[in-house]
Specification:
Number of helices: 1
Structural class: mainly beta
Largest sheet: 8 strands, antiparallel, barrel
Length: 195
């Protein structure tokens, strides 16, 4: 009889904990929240024997100005190297906004839009160094998932973008590019900490 009472007590305690966990949601955002985030991206492209690897890091600070919209400011740091040992390093800054479809929930789809200015330095193997200034506008879908009350995992997948780049030399002309990339070749992962 004592074993039956003990097993019943354990079962009731276990079910009450499960129900309590179902009622409490983890994380979520609300108006006035401040967060920092770091996004890391890696892209590897291969055409025949020619391969290029690119790494990007983008630390971000965000502030919720409404229930669904967060304004963001970020730094852009990147580097790439190809099969010929040609190297490119990038540094810049950006401003943007992200719309969270269900910000108070543990999981939310997002759409972010922003503008950025970057300066890239191209160092060809055995050649002359070139600097390029670029301006870009992009819209990217993504998601946010809270793993605790303060920490969330973040990802963006592809982008609709426009960029204009001009080499920093006399007489150079701008190169403009428009892109729509919603496949798995351009994924950025990050971690968010909410204060």
């Amino acid at each position: 009889m004592k074993k039956l009472l003990l097993m019943t007590a354990v079962a009731v305690f276990g079910f009450s904990n499960v129900n309590a966990q179902d009622e409490n949601t983890t994380g979520g955002f609300e108006k006035g929240d401040v967060y920092v985030s770091g996004t890391v991206g890696y892209n590897s492209t291969k055409e025949g024997d020619f391969k290029t690897n690119r790494f990007d890091f983008m630390p971000t600070v965000g502030y919720f100005v409404s229930e669904n919209i967060a304004l963001e400011a970020n730094l852009i740091i990147g580097s790439s190297e190809d099969a010929d040992d040609d190297k490119t390093s990038t540094f810049g800054a950006g401003l943007g906004a992200t719309y969270f479809f269900t910000p108070a929930s543990q999981f939310s789809f997002t759409v972010g839009a922003g503008v950025a200015y970057t300066n890239a330095k191209f160092e060809p193997n055995g050649g002359t160094e070139t600097k390029v200034n670029a301006f870009a506008i992009a819209v990217a879908p993504g998601l946010n998932y809270f793993v605790s009350d303060c920490f969330a995992l973040r990802a963006s997948i592809g982008a609709l973008s426009y960029a204009s780049a001009k080499p920093d030399v006399d007489g150079a002309e701008s190169a403009n590019a428009f892109g729509l990339n919603l496949d798995l070749s351009d994924i950025n992962f990050g971690v968010t900490y909410k204060f």
